[in-house]
């Protein structure tokens, strides 16, 4: 089965998640399992120290073209220009803000960040490669 990449012009209806970065395996980009000191990739078996884990963008959106609604997820560095920083730098900012505010879930995105992402994307039209 051959897959053909197509372009889809569509408007963002909603942002489906509030956590925009995830710890990613450097080899296969799968989500890493983190504990306080180590990381582990269940897909390829890569391991290392938690402090060395890298992060990647993951933005789930509901979009609409003229005929249909779609759920789409945008991954990776193509989102750097929209956030103004790499996913790793955004993760550091999120952790710092959460530490200052006393948030116990260190990966939770602050509400102001969620609002900013919604303002940036909802109602805007983009061209998606699918």
UniProtKB/TrEMBL annotation:
InterPro entries: DDIAS, Euk_RPA1_DBD_C, NA-bd_OB-fold, Rep_factor-A_C
Domain Replication factor A C-terminal residues, every copy: 9-95
A molecular-function term among this protein's GO annotations: zinc ion binding
Keywords for the protein's UniProt record, in alphabetical order: DNA-binding, Metal-binding, Zinc, Zinc-finger
GO biological process: negative regulation of intrinsic apoptotic signaling pathway in response to DNA damage
Gene Ontology annotations for the cellular component aspect, listed alphabetically: cytoplasm; nucleus
SUPFAM superfamilies: Nucleic acid-binding proteins (SSF50249)
Record-stated family: Belongs to the replication factor A protein 1 family.
Name assigned to this protein: DDIAS protein
